[in-house]
Every structure is written in C-alpha cells, then in structure tokens.
Amino acid sequence: MQLITCPWCGAREETEFHYGGEAHLPYPDEPETLTDEEWAHFVFFRANPKGPFAERWYHSTGCRRWFNAIRDTTTYKFHQVYRLDEQRPAIP
Ligand SMILES: [Zn+2]
Q1: How much is the pTM?
Q2: How does DSSP assign the chain, residue by residue?
Q3: pLDDT tops 90 at residue 90
C-alpha cells in the first residue's frame, strides 16, 4: 500500500484516490470547428510514456478535489503533487 500526498489533506492511503488520466490537456479553443476525427483524437488519444508522467488525480473519499501529480509509470512512485492552479513542475 502506498501513501499519496493530497495538496490539501496530506498523506493518505492510495485507496482514497482515483486516477484521472493525463494532465494538462487543453480543451479545444473552437470545438465547433473540429471534425469527428479531431474530436476522437482529443477524447481518446493520450501519451503513454515510460517514466515520469503528469497525471490528474482525485481525492474521492477525502476532500473530493482534483490535483495533478508527476508519477513514474515504471515504479509507480509519486515525485511531486501540485494543485491545478500551480505551475507544472519540470519532469525529473
Ligand atoms: Zn484531499
């Protein structure tokens, strides 16, 4: 069992959290102009890196807030967590 540090609540058991996918995906500026293929790309296509990755996480059984984290996809280790209004840290 791993502890994940929520930016508001502190370290909690990982079972309190839900994964929310890749972070920092901007919503299209002019969504009405997108083709079906472009929509499909926005909705379904995600990076799948090996190593540090910026992700969204949700503290579902705690404060019920979203936050971002840099997590290593090979070790599952969280390098850093940060609020949505904070600057994205450099990937180690
Ligand atoms: Zn929390």
Answers
A1: 0.88
A2: --EEEETTTEEEEGGG-EEEEES--PPPSSGGG--HHHHHHHHH-----SSEEEEEEE-TTTT--EEEEEEETTT--EEEEE-TTSPPPPP-
A3: no
